[in-house]
Amino acid sequence: MDDRAKAAKALDARFGPTTVPWADHGVVDPALAARGVVRKFKPEPVAPNLLRTLCAAALCAPSKSDVQARDIIVVEDQALQAKIKALLTAGPLAQAWAADMPSLLVFCGNNRRQRLWHEWHGIPFANDHLDAFFNAAVEAGIVLSAFVIAAERAGLGTCPISAIRNHSTAISELLGLPQHVFPVAGLGVGWPAETPRVSFRLPLEVTVHTDRYSEVGLRENIAAYDARRQASQPFRNQKYVEDFGASPAYSWSQDKARQYGKPERANFGAFIRRKGFNLE
Ligand SMILES: Cc1cc2nc3c(=O)[nH]c(=O)nc-3n(C[C@H](O)[C@H](O)[C@H](O)COP(=O)(O)O)c2cc1C
Fold first, then answer.
1. How many CA atoms lie less than 13 Å away from 196 in the CB half-sphere?
2. Whose CA is nearest to atom 29 of ligand 1?
3. Is residue 212 assigned to a domain?
4. How many whole angstroms from 195 Cα to the centroid of ligand 1?
5. Which residue minimizes the CA distance to atom 26 of ligand 1?
6. Cα of 36 to ligand 1 centre, how many Å?
7. pLDDT at 106
8. Is residue 37 part of a domain?
9. Exposure winner among 23, 79, 139, 200, fewest CB in 10 A?
10. Would you say residue 64 lies in a domain?
């Protein structure tokens, strides 16, 4: 099978049947189309200069107004890594897999440098509002995504870790994050010891709009997606059965509703405000 056919097959598998054929000029890297997170790694470490090179690749991603409001912290110190792993693998939302990830990076939003330039140049910072936080968070997300794609291309496996924000204050102290610098997500990195599965995505009819936002057919499309997932990638466990009961027709949308039917990181806004951000 050539690369075009491989990419089309992976896109079909991920997005389901579509009425519009995929472009056939090989624009999609088949490995990207079939990518997935990896949570099982070989024990070998990832060479520091490879991680550093991938950081450079990730930081080639676009940056809003060229402000470059994002940083990557590569956690090399094994004692420090162990402390962060201890946080991630404890408690009700424990990420057991994180215990064995060989490398850990933390992607941060950084609005501190911007504020320093105002001090250095004697120009008041006239944008102390939500945008300062939002831009830095978005930029960190863009670089996280670029790192994932670059790392997968190098044959590495990765899994982002928003669970790092369940411990924002502790992580911030461990990593020495100053005011206006905040963690967005961690990233476990290593040589894969499993082949990632192609996790289904919502059909493009739901997530790609032409000219105007549309919810035409939304419920039917979500129901079809729920059914497609349950048929091929059923959830092994139902969330919060003690609160919401055991469902005979458990589905992806129900799983997401259950997840956000319980408070999660409700203190994150307070943490961000303590970091000096005005969220108005
Ligand atoms: C910002 C972000 C945070 C994530 N946080 C976690 C996490 O804390 N723990 C985890 O196991 N997976 C985490 N993931 C991985 C997602 O669960 C995964 O990407 C999603 O299920 C889709 O699977 P795929 O990437 O293999 O297609 C995160 C992904 C992203 C993009």
1. 23
2. 160
3. no
4. 16
5. 36
6. 9
7. 98
8. no
9. 79
10. yes
Q: What is the mean pLDDT of the chain?
A: 96
> Any idea what DSSP says for residue 43?
S
H-helix or E-strand spanning residue 28: none
Ligand 1 center–CA 255 separation, angstroms: 15
Predicted pLDDT at 93: 83
Ligand 1 pocket residue status of 188, Cβ below 6 Å = no
Q: How far apart are CA 146 and CA 59, in angstroms?
A: 8
DSSP string, 247-274: -TT--HHHHHHHHTTS--STTHHHHHHH
What is the spatial distance between Cα 117 and Cα 68, in angstroms, rounded to a whole number?
13
Residue 108 tokens read as: 């941060």
Chain segment 211-224, per-residue pLDDT in tens: 999 999 999 999 99
Q: Are 50 and 154 in contact (CB under 8 A)?
A: yes
| CATH code, domain with 164 | 3.40.109.10
19 — pLDDT class (breaks 50, 70, 90): confident
Number of domains in the chain: 1
Query: Angle at the Cα of 172 (from 167 to 178), degrees rounded to 5?
Result: 155
Residue-range definition of the domain harbouring residue 168: 48-194+266-274
Looking at residues 163-182, what average pLDDT do you find? 97
Give the number of the atom of ligand 1 that is nearest the alpha carbon of residue 36.
Answer: 26
Give Cα 65 to chain centroid, integer Å.
23
